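Because discrete structure vocabularies remain unfamiliar, we reproduce here a specimen of the format, pairing a chain with its fold in token form:
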Amino acid sequence: MFFKKSLIILYILMVIISFSIVFLKSLYFSYRQILVIIICMKYIDYQIHTGLENMAIDSKILDEAILSNSKEPVFRFYGWLPACVSLGKNQDDSFIDYKFLKSIGVDCVRRQTGGRALFHNNELTYSYVTPASLIENGQNVSESYKYISSILINIFKNLGIELSIGGCPRHITKNNYCMSISTGADLCWNDKKFIGSAQCRKNGYILQHGSILLDYDKNLLSKIFSEPTEFDTIVTLKEIATNIKLEDIINSFKNLYL
């Protein structure tokens, strides 16, 4: 009888220890991620550049991180002047009317990340460069998107806006405009796409950047992308909260992470 009771007690202790190990491991990785995001992040404040300059800066940050074997993630916000179309790395540009873009003073550049084209006007762009090794399961693309997107989710939660990653109904079209499609990497509000992001990887490092849509000109978008744009699956900050401005997003980030 005593032997049976001892076995039961031993079994219970083993179960408790097993659950404790799992809990502590989870706590460790959560704490590790918080440290990486809050303590070790370098921030480059909002600046406005041309499309070519913005892409060159993102590339330079990535290359310098690789060269120095940096363990410090870099986050930056930026704007575009003049307004600019950015194409995905391997995207066919046959739909672009370069003469039309020139006539309205809009530039066009190619990103080193994938995905489809974006129109950078009335929006805020972010970029984040990090070693994949700093992210739990960082070699997994979906996990790295979730991790980096959590920064943006926290920024907007601090402003009273609840976003979800991959929370939009999957919406795949042949459209060339990135915001017209929905993937598991998107940040959504009420089932509508709000932030579109893309990644590239190089020598164990990740560059992720994306567009936070503040407002849009529906007619201009349709002309630029030479196709009817499906706006019922897209939402802008102006439609979510008219009282929140670009500066509020930047200040929310600073209050949380700097």
About this structure: Helices lie at 2-38, 51-68, 98-103, 141-157, 218-224, 237-240, 246-257. The longest helix spans residues 2-38.
